Structure formats: structure tokens, C-alpha cells
């Protein structure tokens, strides 16, 4: 019986090609598994200013995530800060609202640029010591 590794060069080329196809499939699978194609529906926690410590997270209102530094493990960044539920007006230069307002676009930019590290600026350290 002829074995592939005993055959002349054409078989080795075929064998090498099948390894390349396998490697390509593996790479495509890994890359396709990256990212999130889930819903971009906003997370609704109501008016967080009415929470026990306002914007600062405390264990009583955040028990399952308390002492976790990786906010995005539970909170999809694409869904964060998409809607203003505070009752405070949104900043809008075109309408002349530029003070005593919430600038959601700027907050979303912080989320994009700083990721989890940006959360502590408004929400405190979530029980995680620096």
C-alpha cells in the first residue's frame, strides 16, 4: 500500500495544501469569533442620579459586579450611555444648551477611547483599589 509520505513530491504538495486549508479555516474561525454582533439596544438602569450614591456605584446597587475592574465584561460598551434618563437636558450647541447639561456624545467618546478605565471618572472605583 502506498502511503502519502512515501509517495513522490506531488503528494507532499497536496498534503501541505490540506494543512494550509486547515490553518486558513482555523484562522477564519478565530477572527469570526471576535467582536460582538449583538443588539445595540441601550441598557436601562433608570435615572442613576436617584441611586444611593448618585453616579458613584456602591455594592448595594451593584452586587454582582462589585469589585470587578472589567466593566465591559457585563456592560456592552456599544449600549452604554446611549440615552439620557437623568432629566437634565442634553448639551446641544445648535439649540444654545451648553451649560448645566449632559454631553452624551462626549461621554460615549470617553467609552470608546478609554474603555473600562474611563468608567471610574464618573462611577467611582467599583470597590477596586488602585
Report the span from N to C terminus.
67 Å
- Biggest β-sheet description: none
Shape summary:
extended
According to DSSP, the number of beta strands is 0
Series of secondary-structure elements, N-terminal to C-terminal: HHH
Count, helices:
3
Residues in helix, %: 25-40%
Task: Calculate the mean pLDDT score and round it.
Answer: 81
Output the structural class: mainly alpha
Q: Uncertain segments of ≥5 residues (pLDDT<50)?
A: 10-15, 31-35
Strand content: under 5%
Please indicate the count of domains: 2
Give the radius of gyration.
25 Å
What features would you highlight for this structure?
single chain, 130 residues, mainly alpha, 2 domains, 30% helix
Can you characterise this structure?
The protein has 130 residues and is mostly helical. The protein has 2 domains: 1-34; 48-123, no CATH class. It contains 3 helices and no strands. The chain has helices at 9-32, 104-114, 120-123. The radius of gyration is 25 Å and the shape is extended. The termini are far apart.
Report a brief summary of the structure.
This protein has three helices and no strands.
Summarize the SSE layout with pairings:
Elements: H1 9-32, H2 104-114, H3 120-123
Amino acid at each position: 500500500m502506498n502511503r502519502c509520505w512515501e509517495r513522490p513530491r506531488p503528494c507532499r504538495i497536496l498534503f501541505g495544501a490540506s494543512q494550509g486549508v486547515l490553518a486558513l479555516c482555523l484562522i477564519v474561525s478565530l477572527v469570526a469569533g471576535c467582536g460582538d454582533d449583538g443588539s445595540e439596544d441601550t441598557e436601562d438602569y433608570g435615572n442613576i442620579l436617584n441611586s444611593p450614591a448618585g453616579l458613584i456605584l456602591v455594592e448595594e446597587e451593584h452586587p454582582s459586579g462589585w469589585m470587578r475592574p472589567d466593566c465591559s465584561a457585563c456592560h456592552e460598551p456599544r449600549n452604554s450611555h446611549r440615552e439620557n434618563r437623568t432629566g437634565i437636558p442634553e448639551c446641544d450647541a445648535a439649540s444654545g444648551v451648553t451649560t448645566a447639561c449632559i454631553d452624551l456624545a462626549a461621554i460615549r467618546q470617553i467609552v470608546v477611547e478609554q474603555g473600562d478605565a474611563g468608567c471610574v471618572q464618573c462611577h467611582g472605583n467599583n470597590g477596586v483599589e488602585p
